[in-house]
Structure formats: C-alpha cells, structure tokens
Design a protein that fits this description.
Blueprint (H helix, E strand, L loop, with lengths): L1 H28 L11 E7 L2 E2 L10 E4 L3 E5 L4 E8 L5 E8 L9 H10 L2 E5 L2 E6 L2 E8 L1
Antiparallel strand pairs: 1-2, 1-3, 1-9, 3-4, 4-5, 5-6, 7-8, 8-9
Keywords: Signal
Pfam families: META
InterPro entries: DUF306_Meta_HslJ, HslJ-like_sf, Hsp_HslJ-like
C-alpha cells in the first residue's frame, strides 16, 4: 500500500510540474507585441501642438521600436524601455530609462513626461501620432 501511495505522489508531482512549466511558457508567448507598422524608427516633429526645431533639442528626438521594446534619443540622452500593447491603437512606454548627461535640450523633460503618459496612437500618411487621456501629445515622421 505504501508503494502505491508513493507512486501516486510521484506521478502527481511530475504532472503538476509539467503543468506549471506549460503555463509559464505560454504566458511569455501570449504577451501582445506591437503592430508591425509601428516597428521602425520615428523622428519627433511636433510636441504638444508645436513644431519642434533644433532650438528645442540639439538634435531631434527619435524612437526605434521593435515588437516589445524601444530605444532612441531625447536629442541628447539615450533612452530605452519596454513597449506594451493594450489592444488596438493602445500602447504604453514602460520602464523608460534615460541617460543623465547635462544637455541644452529645453524640451527634453516635456518629451520624456509625455512618453511616460502615452496611451494611444494612430498612423496616417507615414506619421505616428501619440496621445494620452487629454488628447494628442506628439507626432513623428518615419526616420
């Protein structure tokens, strides 16, 4: 009887370990990746309704997106982080990190804050439009 009980316990443990392993492997593949049309380089054109110039940034900020992460520049400091697709035309920039070089980019803080609060996007005529709960925040052209 003890042998049968031990065999039952071993089989139960083996099955539960396999089940947990299967769940963890499917969880990572079910993470929604961002749409292919977003996965490219975008250069900032407009910030909070105003056309950006090199007076605002030493060089224009850019974002390079792949299926689940992004990198780029604020015009002075390098940035990177993760992307989360929350459904159709919904995207968030998560875990955003930035270098801390002292720059003469007057709009850098505003640019970073708007990226952190971004929740939606649209693409029209090769331009990317980002928005938050208050409306349109930025637009980019293909880089």
């Amino acid at each position: 009887m003890k042998r049968i009980l031990m065999l039952f316990i071993v089989v139960s443990l083996a099955c539960s370990c396999k089940s947990a392993k299967d769940k963890s492997s499917t969880a990572s593949t079910n993470e929604p990746s961002i749409e292919k049309k977003l996965q490219q380089t975008w250069v900032l054109e407009n910030l909070n309704g105003k056309l950006v110039t090199e007076k605002d940034f030493s060089t224009l900020p850019k974002i390079v997106m792949n299926s689940s992460a992004f990198s780029g520049s604020t015009g002075c400091n390098a940035i990177k982080g993760n992307l989360l697709s929350k459904g159709e035309q919904q995207i968030q920039f998560l875990n955003l990190t930035s270098e801390t070089k002292k720059c003469d980019a007057k709009k850098e803080v505003e640019f970073l804050q708007l990226l952190r609060t971004n929740s939606g996007y649209s693409i029209k005529d090769n331009k990317l439009f980002l928005s938050n709960q208050f409306g349109l925040t930025m637009s980019f052209k293909k880089g």
